[in-house]
Design brief:
The chain is built from 1 helix and no strands. The chain is mainly α. The protein has one domain (about 1-90). V-ATPase is a heteromultimeric enzyme made up of two complexes: the ATP-hydrolytic V1 complex and the proton translocation V0 complex.
Length: about 100
């Protein structure tokens, strides 16, 4: 009779363990599903933001390229004028006749 009680207890423990494991798996599946939904929302927003950043970056690059093309000639001429206008003169600290 004593062995019957132990085996009945063991059977109930196994059933309780299996039931608890099933509840854990159900909770895990529910949380995983909720996580996937939240992850999809976040990743969706992230891809929207990335596309907006890409669009804005391309607009800035296009604007800068147009500005460079518009002012390139003037910038080159200004640099050439600065380089070509050489006026040789002595340094202000130069003293005639003093050596080393």
């Amino acid at each position: 009779m004593y062995s019957f009680t132990i085996s009945g207890k063991a059977k109930r423990l196994k059933e309780a363990k299996a039931e608890a494991q099933a509840e854990i798996e159900a909770e895990r599946a529910e949380r995983e599903h909720h996580f996937k939904i939240c992850e999809g929302k976040v990743l969706g927003r992230r891809s929207e933001i990335e596309s907006q950043i890409q669009k804005l970056t391309q607009e800035i690059i296009n604007t800068q390229t147009a500005s460079v093309n518009l002012h390139k000639e003037d910038a080159i001429n200004m640099l050439l004028n600065c380089v070509m206008q050489i006026q040789p003169q002595l340094h202000k600290n130069y003293r005639n006749g003093i050596t080393g």
